[in-house]
Amino acid sequence: MTFAGTRPRRVSPAEVRARLGEPSDRASAKIRDHIDEYFHHFIAHSPFLTMATADSAGHVDCSPRGDYPGFAKVLDERTLAIPDRPGNKLADSFRNIAENDGIGLLFLIPGLRESLRVNGRAYVTDEPDVLARMRTEAKQPELAIVVEVEEAYFHCGRALVRSRLWDPASQALADEMPSVGEIAVGQFGLDVDPALIDDDFEDVYRKLY
Amino acid sequence: MHPTQQTTIERIERAAEDVVALTLRGAAGPLAPWEPGAHIDLNLPNWLIRQYSLCGDPADRDAYRVAVRLDPLSRGGSEYIHRFLRQGRTLTVSQPRNNFPLAPAPEYLFLAGGIGITPLLPMLRAATAAGRPASLVYAGATAETMPFADELRSEYGDRVRIVATKQQGRPDLAALAAALGPDALVYCCGPASMLAEAEATFPADRLHAERFQPVAKEYGPATPFEAVCARSGRTVPVPADETLLDALNHAGYPVPSGCREGVCGSCELTVLDGDPDHRDDIGAPTDRIFPCVSRSHSDRLTLNL
Known about the structure:
Chain A has 209 residues and is α+β, with helices and mostly antiparallel strands. Chain A is built from 9 helices and 7 strands; from the N terminus they run αααββββαββαβαααα. Chain B has 7 helices and 18 strands.
């Protein structure tokens, strides 16, 4: 889609508020400043979260984190810890956190429509007692991200209902995507068989820790 | 290879400070039999598999009992059981396995540290029922933290010594060793410090110990080798950065696994030829290997697969 040299119209914050109306009392009241037993219950069953961080200039990143349910540890009602498992070593989140400690988390539980949002301040730790709680298959992470919780609340499930995210039939969408190898070949103009790249990724996915 | 069993969590009760006891009733009739010293895997709803010693009565085929201490450094097993597991839900458990069997002996000394009491409870009961002289020294930080202490006192009287180490100090193992009958066997389960002291005090051929955490160990760098699967005639390369268990799984051999750190024994395989590099904490017999941690000194290791 193009806009003939113009950008889509920008709506002012005041106009946005006017169009959405005021939030209900119930929506504002659900925000808590700590991890209560229900939030803890949610985190203990969540195998996946997205982590949003930003650098000092406001450039934002959002990255996926996942492991067995409860991989994010509730250290106490104001503190979470998230393991840093082997990844692409770009360390975008770490770099951002060093400049700007704001962090936003969205936890998901497969099959559950509601999600959990946790916002707060982050720093990086190598505290042995924290890392020990993250040991998997005899390996423990080198680092973890500590989150000092400022806000926590359940997010209603309409987005997940509309997206049919947990409907098994939705997984047919994946079949419509080119493979990761085909994408790499196309994006980087490589002269290799995409199947070889696909095989490489399968090997990478075998070594998770 | 290891069929699982369905149970219903009939009861979760507090057994001591930070200890709960679970009663797991067979959901489809009698459960698999077991001998003192056996443990089962609990397949927790958070995908974790954790091993706990059976501490009930082997004659009760309808239910298993386990007791679980909340580990302050929980990775999600004991924390889940304490905080989130609910009575009435179903729980998949493994067949009982026994890495800590009770050998026949004319006399027994049982040494328990904290939650290490669990495998020793049925041992003490079995030894007593067989008319063997058997005594238990049961150490814990304080009386409040020690499950089953009252029952033990009332059932076995002065054959049980409860030692609250914060007030009384640690039991004098050397004195126990000196008083030990010539053919008595010693069974010890407890924290690493107690096991180390027991290993330094009692003759190795008379001490049977079970640990519930892997010991920190140093090995040379892992080297690649080949696993020869004798029954299927296939050879599986095991690269240096992959475990034998993972290599076999990825090659299509459904070897089951539990702890994946050499403690539980659920991945046990039979070695037909080669020189295994044992790295487990169970003490693999010469013809067995636990492929989750152990590797091979020889270039090829032949397995009964």
